[in-house]
């Protein structure tokens, strides 16, 4: 935790509050026009900013969010599976991480043939349950480890130069922003909920959001605090990589992470699949069907897998992508759309809250990628391709 105790926990709380508010805005705007639902982020932007301007101002960011998330999930899946098998079978320690990422990519190619979001309900539920379970394992294991080996722990920063401290702080901001990445697909998830004028979908959707964000707060704060307490400045970007004992429990937790990202990858990939297939059908006259789905989706999954094998720098990717693309879709674009559509009175609650969120989001978007790029460069110095 490069931000140390108070700034680190404070930034997690600020990000949680800001993105909770912007998610409420998206849920509310889903059906703000009578008789019409904005089932995609880009559709809502078209309405808020005007057709062409809205589409091109949001579509690139939304696609980048989803592609970036899938790349990071690919790396995470490979790292977690490797850690799991190393703990169970120490003789497998020399197997390259590239092979684990390749295996993860192969499974994603199979899962990618799922037709639509409705078909992913079971996978999404499994991913959510796994997320809660491995977070609690990480919290308990870190707490036990800290209680038994709490001597010589340093809570300063890793870098010993002013420049290094600044860049690590910027990377940490992007890492936190990455953690709140679900806004780009929330409208597409809401579109799967039945809606009538008497029972609009925003009511059950908001109940689900409240429950989900309560779980998010529990997981993020407990894992961040216990992990930093147990390991101090030596904690890994993924706390389960730092933990070693009990071996069987940490192995199970890493396998839970593997299952979590296995399902979550598809949630973020599905909108990209739809965009690719729609483009091929409309502009290149391909015939819709299983062959198109097999070729286009396999190509996308293979591309994200290849990138993940080339640059498996987990910490740097989180910081870079978190600032570059996630800050826009999760922190400030929903607020800009809200101001454009509803035009709240100046200095009213929603006007003030929206502008505060915009300022926080823009600062993260500008500063965090700098730290992420530096972290990737430092990691690349000692990295062998496909290691």
Automatic annotation (TrEMBL):
Pfam families: Aa_trans. Residues 5-371 form the Amino acid transporter transmembrane domain. The keyword Isomerase does not apply. It is found in: Membrane. InterPro entries: AA_transpt_TM. The chain crosses the membrane at residues 6-27, 123-144, 209-231, 251-273, 294-314, 320-341, 353-377. One of its GO terms (cellular component) is membrane. Keywords: Amino-acid transport, Membrane, Transmembrane, Transmembrane helix, Transport. This is Amino acid transporter transmembrane domain-containing protein. GO terms for molecular function: amino acid transmembrane transporter activity. It comes from the Eukaryota. The keyword Membrane applies. One of its GO terms (biological process) is amino acid transmembrane transport.
């Amino acid at each position: 935790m490069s931000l140390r105790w108070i700034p680190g926990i404070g930034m997690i709380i600020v990000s949680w509050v800001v993105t909770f508010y912007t998610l409420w805005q998206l849920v509310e705007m889903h059906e703000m026009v009578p008789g019409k639902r904005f089932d995609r982020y880009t559709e809502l932007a078209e309405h808020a900013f005007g057709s062409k301007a809205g589409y091109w101002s949001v579509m690139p960011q939304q696609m980048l969010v989803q592609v970036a998330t899938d790349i990071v999930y690919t790396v995470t899946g490979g790292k977690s599976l490797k850690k799991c098998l190393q703990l169970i079978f120490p003789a497998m320690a020399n197997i390259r991480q590239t092979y684990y990422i390749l295996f993860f990519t192969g499974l994603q190619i199979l899962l990618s043939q799922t037709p639509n979001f409705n078909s992913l309900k079971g996978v999404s539920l499994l991913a959510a349950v796994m997320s809660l379970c491995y977070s609690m394992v990480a919290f308990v294991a870190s707490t036990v480890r800290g209680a038994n080996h709490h001597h010589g722990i340093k809570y300063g920063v890793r870098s010993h130069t002013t420049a290094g401290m600044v860049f690590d702080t910027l990377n940490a901001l992007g890492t936190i922003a990455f953690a709140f990445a679900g806004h780009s697909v929330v409208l597409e998830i809401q579109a799967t909920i039945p809606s009538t004028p008497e029972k609009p979908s925003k009511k059950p959707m908001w109940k689900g959001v409240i429950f989900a964000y309560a779980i998010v707060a529990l997981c993020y704060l407990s894992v961040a605090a216990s992990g930093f307490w147990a390991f101090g400045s030596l904690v890994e970007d993924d706390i389960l990589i730092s933990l070693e004992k009990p071996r069987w429990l940490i192995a199970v937790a890493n396998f839970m992470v593997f299952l979590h990202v296995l399902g979550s990858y598809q949630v973020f990939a599905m909108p990209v699949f739809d965009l690719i297939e729609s483009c091929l059908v409309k502009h290149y006259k391909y015939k819709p069907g299983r062959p198109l789905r097999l070729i286009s989706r396999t190509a996308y999954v293979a591309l994200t897998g290849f990138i993940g094998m080339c640059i498996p720098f987990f910490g740097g990717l989180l910081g870079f992508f978190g600032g570059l693309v996630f800050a826009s879709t999760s922190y400030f674009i929903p607020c800009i759309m809200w101001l454009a559509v509803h035009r709240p009175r100046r200095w009213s609650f929603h006007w003030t809250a929206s502008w505060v969120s915009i300022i926080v989001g823009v600062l993260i978007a500008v500063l965090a990628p700098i730290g992420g790029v530096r972290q990737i460069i430092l990691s690349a110095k000692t990295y062998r391709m496909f290691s």
